[in-house]
Amino acid sequence: MNCKTALNLISAIFLTASMLACSQDSNLLPNEKGGITFSISETNHNFRHADVGEPKFILLSIKDMEGDYIYNMRKIDLFNMNGQYLTENIELPVADYTVEDFAVLDQDASIIYLTPKSGSEFEDYVSTPLPHSFSITPDNVNNVVLEVLPSDFGGLDKFGYAKFSLQIVKHLKLRPNSSDGKDARVDSWYGDENWGDREDLMIKNWTIDGRLSRTRAYLDFDFTDIPAGATIKKASLSLYHWPENTHSKLSGSNACWINRVTEAWGEGEITWNTQPSFTSVNRISMEASETDNEDYLDIDILPIVNDIVNSPAGSDGIMIQLKQESGYRALYFCSSDYHDPDKRPKLEVIYSY
């Protein structure tokens, strides 16, 4: 399967043109008009990109053959008619036209799909880059097919929309492995020991031979793909139970704080005695476990990620600690070194720029 065919399977927008007969005369009249509607078929599951919101609008520019805009970046509502997304009927005089801009927007008016333009980096990814010609003719129904690509394929300039003023939405999924991951636990009992290559991330308070042992977990992710000035819409962290041990609330709640780390650290060097500084500003609360093997899925850490993106020079990931570092209580999660990739820490960030 070639690249163009594969991308055709990703998504498609169908523009259905229906003619309104305005005269019984066989000759064209100057004021004859036709109708065009724009529809999106949700039954084509390849169109819907799982990482973005539901299509709500179309942004459309149309020119006539003289090069004058009939519509210039017109925002048109999409209506969900039993799984079929349909716009209102647009009347146009019987003539030839070109579609100059075509984008699909979500409920926040952020771009989620685009048709690339001729001359852009992505023009060869579709069979019909813009501008694309269509005709309104009497007594005919004209069907025009425009292919679209998810907006997170690349920046707007790569689609040929360098001057587009609306936002583009991207979904960043981070799930590093043992080579790319940066996480470690530190333990007060082993103050000078490094635990950066362990398969577990332990957050624990216990005693060893009657001596207090406090354990914290550090994680960092690569945010360099998020451009400066981006608006973070969602940031969710998922941690998965390490099956070799069980969460414990022997002495009470094992609720935790997630703090932003403000000093550089290395996975292979960090110890309890060399812990980096952190801040409690905008820290996130993790509730106590309800079961002894609970996964913590989609923890909302938006405030911390906002701070990391806005202050990258003073941000080096997160640290998780028990709210009460006393008694006997613990949480056990898998690290990026864990052998099962589906159990490694995951961070998902949706942002626009």
TrEMBL record:
<dbReference type="Pfam" id="PF24517">
    <property type="entry name" value="CBM96"/>
</dbReference>
<keyword id="KW-0732">Signal</keyword>
<feature type="domain" description="Carbohydrate-binding module family 96">
    <location>
        <begin position="181"/>
        <end position="349"/>
    </location>
</feature>
<keyword id="KW-0964">Secreted</keyword>
<protein>
    <recommendedName>
        <fullName>Carbohydrate-binding module family 96 domain-containing protein</fullName>
    </recommendedName>
</protein>
<feature type="signal peptide">
    <location>
        <begin position="1"/>
        <end position="23"/>
    </location>
</feature>
<dbReference type="InterPro" id="IPR055372">
    <property type="entry name" value="CBM96"/>
</dbReference>
